[in-house]
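Supplementary notes for students who missed Thursday's class. We covered one full example, reproduced here. Read the sequence, then the structure, then the short commentary at the end.
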Amino acid sequence: MKKKIAIIGSGISGLTLASLLKYNSDFEFLVYEKESSLNLDEGFGLQLSVNSVSILNKIGFAQLNKNEKYHPLNVNFYTENYKIICNLDLTIFNSENEKYTTLKRSSLIKFLKEKLLTNSLIFRKKINTVENKNEKININFTDGSSEEVDYLVVSDGVFSNSKSAIENKIFKPIYYGASAFRAQIKDQNTFNFNSSNISLIMGSNSHLVVYPINQSKELNIVYIIRKKLEDDKDTKKVLDNKIFDYNKNLKNLFQKNLKPWPLYMSNKPVKSSYKNVFYIGDSFYTFPPTMAQGASQAIESAYEIFNLIKNNDSDIQKVYFNNRIKKTNLIIKRSKFNYFIFHISNQILKGFRNKILKILVKNKTFINSYLGKVYKK
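Structure (token representation):
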């Protein structure tokens, strides 16, 4: 008899798991989404490390229109006045078929959605309560309907209400002490650096990341500042003093009423009290943005659960949690260290940092340890 799996949330992790399950006839699955439809208009960018690309290739990602993705060769590090410090070669992690990739989030969501049958996605569904019944999970939805499944996988993000409903405990993310802006442009002449690569501009208590997201070299821009912005006046002051002062061309880009959003991270990973309930993606842990690992870890966690369920491991909950927590802790440490390094404000320390960076990016042993442990298994 086929095992039944309910997936809560139609983000990257949920749709990745569903797409993997589609190719396994031993399972039935449904994806439940609280919204009325998938948002395919979100054009902001994602970075996918090689390991997550290798997973996506198992469901046909290599055949995605090449114009919709890009393979940057380097990360270029800059001072806040746009002077080049050094370059990090990303190709050392690549293989012939798996390469570090950037693209629009909407392109990835659309690709994953197209792998599924229309009736695999059920909208306007939100968990009310769950109960363990005869080794199965009975899900009660807020609309009065219910579903009995063998496995429940929750992937509805950092502000997951499902987790609170399931565990009967309030879970709230932690404000990370920073705000972010996001924008996109098509004009490559706006910046005075190589638009073929990922550019990281390190400022005082802030950093700016720019990278192409398709073969047309549309650029995704993310600016993160270690400050909570209270109102439009505060926002304008930050933009004028932190971005426009060093690159006047950006003023045209940010003419719109650009709103910042506060950055959050998870308090700690949660192991469900039910042995057949699992959290993946941002529901398991939402990372700080300074390793660009949100999407990649969503994909990896979905793949880990898929394999454990497929192989019918005797203690899936324990194996999954122990493996995921190791990777999570590794990325948390590196993300926090990057956050410190990117935002140094003392001029003497900046000079020291820049000299050390020039040495480290050429040290293959260090790079394979610091990034390879994250980018590859």
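Commentary. The chain has one domain: 3-173+265-375. The domain at 3-173+265-375 is CATH 3.50.50.60 (FAD/NAD(P)-binding domain). If anything here is unclear, bring it to office hours.
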